[in-house]
Write a structure and sequence with these properties.
11 helices; mainly alpha
Length: 285
């Protein structure tokens, strides 16, 4: 029995449910192989990657620390953008296999991030036959934009959120007696860094989510405008928690990209809504 739900393109032959499962299996297999291939390369170069990339945000000479400090002095606001030093931070492992298992974790996380464009391309190849010609036309460039915003979010998380977060958390002290000592583990550091990077990559999909939700009628531009003030308050709270100091400049650096993404989402939603209204008029005329 064929399922037309999975194939709305008249130019494509209809496939059975089992055929779709088989196709999905091979898309998943090829995606996993892409991750594994990149992961193997990362594992081979794990020492260099750990020293220069993974541990970058906790090095005092990391590009974000030096660049933001120089920028703050250049615009005559002193050391407002200079983050506190993390030179004394040392990671520890508590089991014999921690470093080896962490190397494997780093390899597969790096493999997923690098192979993400190919993974989404495989996903798109599976979904594409189910789209109508109109949907295909409106989704043109989806692979590029999803990849672009994902990698942009990864870069934002790595160069801004991660340094701010680790600098703040490492230098935060509870009490004044000095009886507490922070001893972060390697697993804890990798977990936090992964959450920041993947979370930022997903958060930067906001314009695309707005596009999709508006296209199917769940969100309107007026809805996004009405709740803009609440969204801005939430963004400011997040920025205040993440930034290492309460000055407005450092909070702005973190919050500004999220403000811009929200405004871009409203513009995209408006364009999609106008396109839908124009299409509906043409269909009824």
């Amino acid at each position: 029995m064929a399922f037309k739900l999975f194939n709305r393109n008249p130019d494509q032959p209809e496939m059975s449910f089992i055929d779709h499962l088989e196709a999905l299996r091979w898309h998943i297999v090829r995606s996993v192989l892409a991750v594994v291939v990149v992961a193997i390369f990362v594992f081979i170069k794990i020492d260099w990657i750990f020293d220069n990339i993974i541990a970058g945000p906790i090095h005092s000479n990391f590009v974000s620390y030096t660049a933001l400090c120089k920028f703050g002095r250049a615009i005559h606001i002193g050391d407002a953008l200079c983050m506190q030093s993390v030179d004394s931070l040392k990671l520890q492992t508590t089991t014999f296999g921690s470093q080896f298992l962490s190397s494997i974790t780093i390899a597969f996380i790096g493999g997923f991030i690098v192979a993400f464009p190919y993974i989404f391309w495989e996903f798109w190849r599976f979904v594409k036959p189910a789209l109508s010609p109109k949907e295909l036309k409106s989704s043109r460039g989806a692979i590029f934009w999803v990849t672009f915003f994902f990698l942009l979010g990864i870069a934002f998380g790595y160069f801004l959120l991660a340094p701010f977060t680790f600098s703040f958390l490492w230098n935060y002290r509870l009490g004044v007696a000095g009886i507490l000592e922070t001893r972060p583990t390697l697993d804890d550091y990798i977990e936090n860094l992964t959450d920041i990077l993947i979370g930022s990559g997903i958060a930067f999909q906001l314009p695309l989510i707005s596009y999709v939700l508006t296209s199917i009628g769940l969100v309107t531009p007026s809805f996004l405008r009405i709740y803009r003030k609440y969204a801005y308050v939430a963004i400011l709270i997040i920025a205040a928690v993440i930034t290492p100091s309460p000055d407005w400049m450092s909070q702005t650096i973190v919050a500004l990209p999220l403000f811009i993404l929200y405004e871009i989402s409203i513009r995209i939603s408006s364009r999609v809504m106008k396109r839908r209204e124009k299409r509906d008029k043409e269909e009824w005329s």
